[in-house]
Amino acid sequence: MIKVQNIRHSFGSKTVLRGIDFQLEDATLSGLIGPTGSGKSVFLKILAGVYHPTSGEVIHNIDRSSDISLMFQEGALFDSLTVFDNVAFPLVDGDVPADGLPESVLCSVRDQVEEILGHVGLKKAAFKIPAQLSGGMRRRVSLARALVSRPRVALLDDPTCGLDPVASSVIMDLIVELYKEYKPAILLVSHDLRRLLPVVEKVHALFDGKLVYSGSTDQISQQAEGYVEHFVSCRYDLSGVEGRAS
User: Fold this and answer.
1) pLDDT at 4 over 50
2) Quick one: which of 45, 111, 124, 238 could link to 50 by a disulfide (CB 3.0–4.6 Å)?
């Protein structure tokens, strides 16, 4: 579990997060929504320990260096490394030489990497470099790297951003499949509410650096503050959206 108490964060004179209280329960699949610039990516980086908040406290019962994984919105793949070595990166403490992993290390990580590449359908692309892949395939590599070590918490920053509907569906289906397999706590940022809401158990809404809604997907358009309801209803017709990961 991760609990956040009164988190505030600023970059110089620009305040990004404005006093957030938040809780991420173990073995849950939750969504985080909000317009561009609302602080979602900064918030995920604080949860992952990449940033230290200006004030407030992050309380957790896990080792953030090994039990929390962050999938960056931009993917952040290493252009000079193969798909295999990119995915292996978390398993070798980030120590991947430019000419690839030595055989002694490969023996200990090969099974884990091959298993996750099989899950995301990229076994045949294991020795390609990112420049040889489509945008959807690169996102699948990023997802595989985020989950290869089976972290207790996975923070996924808009993994379908910029993808076409087919590629987006593949990514969301993979996330649900991997969640069902070993039940990490997943916090999934997405702007695609029609794909997000049928998948997650709970939604958090971040607007102007403030967490203005945390609750079930069923009640978001009824119980959320006015601008969250407006954001949801104006951009998406959510009638007929069904299904939930379980």
Assistant:
1) yes
2) 45
Classify residue 209: in a domain, yes or no. yes
**Predicted confidence band of residue 46 (pLDDT cuts 50, 70, 90):** very high
Query: What is d(CA 167, CA 190) in angstroms, rounded to the nearest whole number?
Result: 14
The total domain count for the chain is 1
H or E stretch at 23: strand 14-24
Integer Rg of the chain from CA = 18
Residue 242 inside a domain? The answer is no
Domain CATH for 219: 3.40.50.300
Instruction: Judge whether 241 lies within some domain.
Output: no
For residue 104, give both structure tokens.
């002694």
For residue 128, CA distances in Å to 44, 63, 131, 244 come to 29, 32, 8, 35
Give the pLDDT confidence score for residue 240 in this predicted structure.
47
> Does residue 246 fall inside a structural domain?
no
> Residue 123 burial (CB < 10 Å; 0-12/13-18/19+)?
middle
Range of the domain at 84: 2-235
Closest by CA position to 123, among listed 140, 106, 101, 100: 140
